Amino acid sequence: xxxxxxxxxxxxxxxxxxxxxxxxxxxxxxxxxxxxxxxxxxxxxxxxxxxxxxxxxxxxxxxxxxxxxxxxxxxxxxxxxxxxxxxxxxxx
Amino acid sequence: xxxxxxxxxxxxxxxxxxxxxxxxxxxxxxxxxxxxxxxxxxxxxxxxxxxxxxxxxxxxxxxxxxxxxxxxxxxxxxxxxxxxxxxxxxxxxxxxxxxxxxxxxxxxxxxxxxxxxxxxxxxxxxxxxxxxxxxxxxxxxxxxxxxxxxxxxxxxxxxxxxxxxxxxxxxxxxxxxxxxxxxxxxxxxxxxxxxxxxxxxxxxxxxxxxxxxxxxxxxxxxxxxxxxxxxxxxxxxxxxxxxxxxxxxxxxxxxxxxxxxxxxxxxxxxxxxxxxxxxxxxxxxxxxxxxxxxxxxxxxxxxxxxxxxxxxxxxxxxxxxxxxxxxxxxxxxxxxxxxxxxxxxxxxxxxxxxxxxxxxxxxxxxxxxxxxxxxxxxxxxxxxxxxxxxxxxxxxx
Lengths: 92, 397
Hints:
The complex is a heterodimer. By secondary structure, chain A is α+β, with helices and mostly antiparallel strands.
């Protein structure tokens, strides 16, 4: 049944040209150069230190690495990071 | 992120988190709606973040669960500021007194101005205004509305057609428009128009009064031309005689014209000298020494810096030195005669004004003697011959 509903969702997304993040609950990231990063749709902080931030996602994890990272603001689904961002990695 | 004013109002604390798992604390806080921001790690590996005061107290249970310990490193915002103010009572009192004083003083009327009064004196208007409560050092909240005030002031000042009261901050402007009175009384007294010279009347037009003379009548100086008394006896009335009477008057002229005409002319040679103007002193900067001309005239031209009609005390003076010479010219007796007649005529125009007609000129006598031409000329001039004579009212007859 779940498999079926996912198929239907994918079909509607393609058919109606809906953004993928809305349909599949994927994170949406807005990055300004290497200094600001805005992540929507996260599921909590797993690890945070000066050079690494690991966030839980609905499916998998996301790791931001860099230097002097600061969480400027954190809300239930969004997080706003500042600092020198060097890499963003996704782990399924 | 700058502190928003809402957070400042609530009070912001900066906390340091030690031990336990700070990431778990961030997650728990986020899930419970406790907002943390500016989360960063310090050099010594401790997490630092900021939150509002009320959120700080709500963080307690989560600390226990994540076995973290916090300690406050910085407090700022309104609650802390008020706490500080509590300790400085006199400062707080002074602040309050200052603000209250400022407010009260701005509620006061500091200036009453009266505009537009001509016949009414300022004191009269201010007196009426004071009776209505408009005066200096009056509280503006004790005064009535401006439109009510202007209506009442207009009732108090019957001479004014309209009174406007305008309040701008601490200044009251009373604008008065006065009644315009009826036509001013006549400034003339009843009069005759009489002859100023012996003359022969050529034209008489009476606008007011009774014409006494006719055209081609010879009149003597002092004769009544237009009478100010009208009506037959005994029902007479006096008026201001008005009109125009012109007549021919004879003017005698003795003219003498020298046969040598001396006139001053410029030779055309000139030189300029400059002076620097500072305040009301001037400093010569060029053209030193005496000019090389024998006879000369100096024309000064002052140039001063000015900006928007404001004269600056700096400028320069140009002096132009012009050479002059006296030119002598011999006149023929004919030329001298015409010059003399022209001079006499010019004198007539200046004495009698432009409204004259020279009817004739008769050369009665002419002789040349001692390098001069002597002439006696008689001019027949048509001119206005009236002059005024006030009528004295005879009473008690």
